[in-house]
């Protein structure tokens, strides 16, 4: 084999590539994750990620070319929870007519964008995995989370508590579920088999929602 490779690398490489592409296409499985709370209610905004455990086949992350957007709109972050792969740029455009000052004190990525007005877009590179809690120095109630994962296989649950992860190369994975109000950790190992469509139902315990509530407009509550 080494001799063939040395003398004619191109055909051998072509064969290897064709074989890899062919088998990975055949060996893809799907996983449907349903996240519920302890009362059986669907949990929205849960981040589901599958981290490959086969050391021999690290998954390329493919961060998007264009920045992912977390805007400030109506004096709130939109969306509340975002998940991206390591190496992704995120921009924070201000869609309001007032100014915001977005920051994070997280260990994963501490940063601050100095006070900026409408339309300003500055992107930040998120180059380490972890949780990034976001805030605004001007508006205490503004809160959002960015989850940076070291895998291309991730999704956020919709209102029905469901996340669908498709085209997963067969193999062993660690399934992580994260939510802003998660009590403790939620992770388990699973094996994805070729042509599989496994459903994982995960029950999580959520802490009470302690987000600061905005004072209603005109109520003089002092939040604005
Ligand atoms: Cu603000």
Protein structure class: mainly beta
Largest sheet: 5 strands, mixed
Helix coverage percent: 10-25%
Q: What is the second-level CATH architecture?
A: Sandwich
Strand arrangement, largest sheet?
6-12-11-8-9
Low-confidence stretches: 1-26, 218-224
The total number of structural domains is: 1
Radius of gyration: 21 Å
What fold name stands as the CATH topology? Immunoglobulin-like
Beta-strand level of the residues, as a percent range?
35-45%
Give the N-to-C terminal Cα separation. Answer: 71 Å
> Topology as H/E string?
HHEEEEEEEEEEEEEEEEE
Number of helices: 2
What best-fitting shape do the alpha-carbon axes yield?
globular
Annotation keywords:
5-stranded mixed sheet; mainly beta; 11% helix; 224 residues; disordered C terminus; binds copper (II) ion; disordered N terminus; 4-stranded antiparallel sheet; globular; Immunoglobulin-like
Describe this structure in words.
It is a single chain. This protein has helices at residues 2-7, 9-26; strands at 28-37, 47-52, 68-69, 71-73, 76-78, 81-85, 88-91, 102-104, 111-112, 123-126, 130-136, 143-149, 154-156, 162-169, 171-178, 186-192, 197-204. Helix content is 11%, strand content 40%. The termini are far apart. The strands form 5 sheets. Strands 6-12-11-8-9 form a 5-stranded mixed sheet, with no helix packed on it. The model is unreliable at 1-26 and 218-224 (pLDDT under 50). 25% of the residues are buried. The protein has one domain (27-56, 63-204): Cupredoxins -  blue copper proteins (Immunoglobulin-like), CATH 2.60.40. The protein contains 2 helices and 17 strands. With 224 residues, the chain is mainly beta. The structure holds copper (II) ion. Copper (II) ion (CU) is lined by residues 100, 136, 138-139, 142.
């Amino acid at each position: 084999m080494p001799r063939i490779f040395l003398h004619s690398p191109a055909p051998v490489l072509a064969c290897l590539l064709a074989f890899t592409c062919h088998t990975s296409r055949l060996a893809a499985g799907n996983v449907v994750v349903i996240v519920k709370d302890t009362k059986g209610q669907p949990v929205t905004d849960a981040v589901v990620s599958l981290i490959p455990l086969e050391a021999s086949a690290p998954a390329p992350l493919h961060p998007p070319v264009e920045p992912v957007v977390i805007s400030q709109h109506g004096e709130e972050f939109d969306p509340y929870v975002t998940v991206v792969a390591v190496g992704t740029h995120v921009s924070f455009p201000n869609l309001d007519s007032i100014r915001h000052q977005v920051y994070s004190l997280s260990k994963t990525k501490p940063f601050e964008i100095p006070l900026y007005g409408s339309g300003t877009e500055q992107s930040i590179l998120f180059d380490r995995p972890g949780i990034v809690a976001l805030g605004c120095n001007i508006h205490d109630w503004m809160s959002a989370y960015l989850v940076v994962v070291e895998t291309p296989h991730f999704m956020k649950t919709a209102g029905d508590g469901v996340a669908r992860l498709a085209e997963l190369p067969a193999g062993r994975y660690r399934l992580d579920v994260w939510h802003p109000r998660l009590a403790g950790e939620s992770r388990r190992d699973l094996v994805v088999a070729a042509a599989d469509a496994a459903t994982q139902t995960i029950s999580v315990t959520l802490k009470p929602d302690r987000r600061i509530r905005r004072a209603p407009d005109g109520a003089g509550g002092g939040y604005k």
